[in-house]
Amino acid sequence: MDQSLNLANFSQLVAAGTPLLFITTENETRTENLIQRATQQVIKGMPLPRIWNCNSGFEGQQGTSEAQPALEWAISQEGRGIYIFKDLSAFWDNHPHLQRTLKDFSAGRRAPGKTLVILGTPCEIPPLLRNDILILDHGLPERGEIQSFLQSSRSRDPLVDKLLDSAEALDRLTLACQGLELNDIERALRLARVTKSAGLEDLVGALFQSKQQIRKSGIMEYVENDIQPEQVGGMGNIKQWMEKREKAFGGAALSAGRNLPKGVLTMGVSGCGKSLFVKAIAARWHLPLVRLDMATVYAGTFGSPETSLRAACKTAESLAPCVLWIDEIEAGISSQGFKAEGGAASRVLGYFLTWMQEKRQPVFVAATANAIEMLPAEMLRKGRFDEIFYVALPDVAAREEIFTIHLAKKGFDPQNFNCSMLGHSAKGFSGAEIEQAVTSAAFEALAQDRAPVQQDIMEAISRTVPLSVTMAEQIKKIEAWAFKRAVAAN
To answer: How many whole angstroms separate alpha carbon 390 and alpha carbon 486?
Structure first.
């Protein structure tokens, strides 16, 4: 993994005389500001950095718009200095003279005491330079940087000062800002200034809407989540698992990412609420929810599989504390795929396992699987996930609870129905099939311009052949695997 850039390690690297740094960044201005703060506050006696781009060259220096002359001019200057090159990586692939100049400079053959900083998006370093350039990653701002930015905005903007009238408001706004660049946050604050009646809730809502831009990456999707924990029927053991952690560490601490568990893997029959549980845990702990599409990681649309996965994990860490939802994880990481795909699959598995073990940010990984036997053994060992849960078909009590939930969601009074009888009649039904029975009954009643009654749902149940019948052999196989290997969810 690339080393993360911060004020302290940049200052140390420059003080140690590191000649070449390549900083991957999506926000050049923010990275420039960090380097300027380092020269002003930490590195004693260092002049302000000089900045080059391919349009204007170095400010005030004629003949430096071309990359090679600009590089030679920077190296020829006397004394210590930091020289920032914005567009250099666009020229070095087919420019052997540029590569040789950089390599000789790194070797210390001329102009010691300088650091050349190359800014760019993630790209391939030319083979000649791979051992000479130290790569740093300036990812999205972390919690401390966001809070500093909000506090500085507060000092110059009365509206922001009014919104952040308490420590709780600052924490809520900081959480909403995580995963956004500073310019995105500034844009939301400007919008709040225009809409002077906007309160904290409106601003938090606008920031969460801005996170929809994560979808542009194609790999990650920010999930709007309005599920409440009480909308999940059954799953008593999973709910108890959550409650124990809340009692041990406190709900507020978990929401802030302190002592947040590593994650859980839920497996079982399709339609029994695995994905619903993921949404419920994110809602209960007030954490943002992002979904990773493993099939897209392997599609190659956004680079190699390992590059795509690395970008996705960095995005999740920038949103931390958050819940990373990997739906049907066996579609991207499986023992069959590991053997068939060879190099790419093994590198993806290796990176993901390493990241799960060593991630520094509080990211709760919630993975679901329909065919857990397809996952490699390395994924299932203790320490990767806090627990592996098996979500079976709901029992009669859970079915009764699920009927109650879905009737209420449709706007019907559950007291007008015999949910106990419905629960017994729907033996072998999954939660999704129960929901569909209620939906079908409501539709039939609506078509006859009347409210649904018990008989409508009973008829919908009788017309449904549940998955437990059509896929009986496969379900028995899943249950046999999970019997001694996973904790029952209910």
So the answer is: 6
